Amino acid sequence: MTVVPQLKQQILPQHVAIIMDGNGRWAEQQGKPRVWGHKKGVEAVRRSVSFCRELGIRSLTLFAFSSENWRRPEEEVSTLMQLFLLVLQKEVKALHKNNIRLKIIGDLSAFSDKLVQSIKKAEALTAANNAMTLNIAANYGGRWDIVAASQQLATRVQQGEIQPAEINEALFAKQVQMAEQPELDLLIRTGGDLRISNFLLWQAAYAELWFTETLWPDFDQQVFSEAIAAFINRERRFGCTGAQIRELAAENKG
Ligand code: IPE
Ligand code: IPE
Ligand code: MG
Known about the structure:
Strand order of the largest sheet: 3-4-2-1-5-6
Number of domains: 1
Shape: globular
Low-confidence stretches: none
Helix content: 40-55%
Number of strands: 6
Order of helices and strands: HEHHEHEHEHHEEHH
Bound molecules: 3-methylbut-3-enyl trihydrogen diphosphate, magnesium ion
CATH topology: Undecaprenyl pyrophosphate synthetase
Distance between the termini: 35 Å
């Protein structure tokens, strides 16, 4: 499906993140094991990446595995890891061909050497691509991100590079994941639950939130377009009044 042309003319989000939830329930509804849902979920990932690439969205960040997902049954965790490795090896060529840079965000220290090597290889291959960045959050937690940033800043203080009083929001923002990318504009969650589940806590400060009952394997261009259309119709005020925002918009137009 080609992207609705009207969408392209609007002010689009530059950075979209998605909590891809509902794979297990999708599979259960079909009387299949949960892992079947994860496998079908890969197709929704592919659709979402090409949708964003076509629209011209700069960054897409997908929550694939949270720092809490290790609590799941061993069999599900190991299938997810195998799937991750397989998809990484299989899809990276297509990403590269489409000029997409791949980044994995999360604590890689928990992954097998084989997986880490595969990640590094895929990132290196696509490092110079500049049409879009696809961030895959794996063993990611919003709190982990903030703690890791704090540790880096603490090290810099210890080494005498900066003073504690110099730590401010701007400096902190440079230490969290995806610091070099556009700010998060839109955060989508599929699967009907209304929570963040320890995803991008720092980065979501002023993101617009959009939730859908659609389970992740059913997520397609149609539903994604609904989210984008909702975003376009929102008034983002960033603490200002509506009148101030409309005045600014009029100035920019004139
Ligand atoms: C999201 O789907 C994928 C991962 C967390 C890896 P779930 O597996 O959480 O599916 P539900 O929420 O149980 O349906
Ligand atoms: C969030 O989904 C994590 C991912 C989509 C990878 P979960 O299914 O793990 O979230 P909770 O446990 O319902 O909050
Ligand atoms: Mg879930």
